[in-house]
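Field notebook, page 151. I keep forgetting to write these up properly, so this time I am using the form the group agreed on. The chain and the ligand, iron/sulfur cluster, are recorded exactly as supplied. Prediction of the bound pose follows.
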Amino acid sequence: MARVVSPVIWLQPDAPPKPATGAPCNGCGLCCLAEPCPIGVLVSRKRTGACRALVWSDEAHQYRCGMLVHPARYLGGPATHPDDALNRVLRRWARRLIAAGVGCDAQLEAVVALPAAPPAPSPSDAGEPSPASGTDAALPSPPSPPPSPSK
Ligand code: SF4
Ligand code: SF4
């Protein structure tokens, strides 16, 4: 029986929508925000939640795997140039492990969560100015006498 999970994840508003399964990865980030892949477990030291190596690119408007950008940084290595020999080796290793370029294999569906509606006003609230509305408070006027019955 398929496991159904519905974590709430926060996506960049400019992130592209998830493509169909099997289509080229477009960096939507959905899978890596939902849970880390095996390398992500290693660098994030956790099995659930967003991967620590996931990075957002403002220029490309897509998420990138940090293990393909600057892997040594996420493995606690020394501060090195992203294109030095160590990072090139690590990048090749990571590319194989995450099967980069194979296509999207995430069986996930994103559903936009709408903000919760405010609670409905109770009958006692009707007609009363809200304290946050900025209106001046007024003292209640004395009750008017009951109307005389018509003939
Ligand atoms: S593998 Fe699929 S879900 Fe994951 S980032 Fe790429 S396109 Fe998005
Ligand atoms: S290691 Fe890369 S591919 Fe794997 S979950 Fe993290 S960001 Fe995604």
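OBSERVATIONS:
- Strands lie at 54-57, 62-65.
- DSSP finds five helices and two strands in the chain.
FOLLOW-UP: compare against the apo run.
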